Amino acid sequence: MAALSPAPLILAGQGWTDYGLIDSGHGRKLERYGPYRFIRPEAQALWAPRLSDWDADGEFVPGSDEDGGGKWHFSREVPREGWPLAWGDVRFTAQCTPFRHLGFFPDMAPVWEWMGEQLGGSDDAATLNLFGYTGVGTLALSAHGAVAHVDASKKSVAQAKENAALSGMENRPIRWLVDDAAKFAAREVRRGRRYDGIILDPPKFGRGPGGEVWRLEEHLPALVADCRQLLDAQSRFLFLTVYAVRMSSLAIAGLLAEALAGLPGEIEHGELAVREEGEGGRLLPTAIFARWCGG
Residue 99 sits in which domain range? Predict the structure, then answer.
């Protein structure tokens, strides 16, 4: 039976050639994405910035609505169609989206590394990426075998395919699926499918391609229960991240412990964070996570 580790972990990412957290503070963060710098809101940056001058190419200014809204303001020309970046062998397009993001989540880099470690030198693993977004994690997983990439957004899946072509990975065994994640997982259970690893990166709220409504607190337990049916004692991992909710990592770890009862291995939990560049760089928390690692 998988043991639940009570002590939380910090899974901290470092910058790399094409990305870095330059500074943070007063509810904002300054990041570099290739040759461009951007300022975005960050509620968890409660401290004061270290740098006095935040020279940026653009800033996302949030709207007055607590649930979202806002607009990009640019001080210099930024390619609206995006520009190429890389993480390891994976190439992808970064772009200033209307939702304040830039087409990928850099705090997931240590998650992608960890999943690769769990799969080791395998090249025939079967993995599932639910809420796969623009596919950077999917392309990293595809080095180890077949991947099912599921996202409700047709636009995101199209971007993921473009990223695969940009990386020269368009011929890898990836199923690109525009589908409701919960419905897809339920169908996979009925089909008797199994996976060596599953990554779950669900939003707080969303809609499926058929208008299906997703509310994390309401629908996550059933989805995790279905994911359990897609794993067995020879599977390697399940990784769950949760953003922007009033929930603790211990709570979602408890959910995994209940759902994955009977499997070997260990369940860990904690926070994702990104470390600022430079000496004494601070850790900026971004999300909570819980993960199961097979025995």
Answer: 3-18+80-293
